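User: Teach me something about this protein's shape.
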Amino acid sequence: MSASQIALQSRVALVTGAGQGLGRTHAHALARYGAVVAVNDLSRAHAEQVAQEIVDSGGRAIACPADVADPDAVQAMIADVQARLGPVDLLVNNAGILRDRTFAKATLQDFRTVLDVNLMGSVHCTHAVWNGMRERGYGRIVFTTSSSGLYGNFGQANYSAAKMGLVGLMQTLAIEGQRHNIRVNCLAPSAATGMTSGLYANDDLARLDSERVSPAVVALCADDAPTRTILLAGAGRFAQAHVSMTRGVYLRDETDPASAVLASLAEIACREGEHVPASGPEQHRFEIAGLS
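Assistant: First, the predicted structure itself:
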């Protein structure tokens, strides 16, 4: 898809955690394609700086500082954005934090804090704009998941849980929003930012420019964006992840079914002919169909 095929003029975009890092580049990228950008960040100074950068570049933007983990603050922020710019058409849930420690050493409070910002922060923002999008028959929502959630990462149990939770949220909201032209997707970025400092080697960091990730956000905010897509982006490479199910095996007449499952794990895991269910109930229909 070329740049000329995407026009975001008249669209109001809210980007959370946009005061620096990936959020900042997302905000700038959306503005370049014509969107009017509401720049959210916990830091008022950072939000105002990025909004001013966009204005200085010829775009339109406002700062809307708020803590996404606070639902009341989010409601007030959305009301302010709507009063100043109009209803939110595009929501990029980017705000996030890390509290990396092994599960054995992590505190429950740190676990809750990571969930509150990364998962519930996205829930708060999405819930605040959802009904308006339904009423207008238009919306594009991006959740920022992570390879840590999709595949795991040592010392990031809290972050992984939050990020995989966003995938489940996306799966259901995409189904619920489809009839209202609300398209909901996930982005799993790889970029050199303050949050990833120390996670990558120096040579890798040089390749992981955040500017190479933001085109994925623009694509997922386009009129003809997909829905229920987990898009991976980093170093200029774009790929897609899937939550799929294998064909499996039927073990109905075993005297010791648990042992039969254990002995059949290699066959159960075989990915030949694997399937991506359209919804949770389709898994059950797929399983029952094999009995007939």
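Now, about its shape. DSSP finds eleven helices and eight strands in the chain. The chain has a mean pLDDT of 93. If you'd like, I can walk through any region in more detail.
User: That's plenty for now, thanks!
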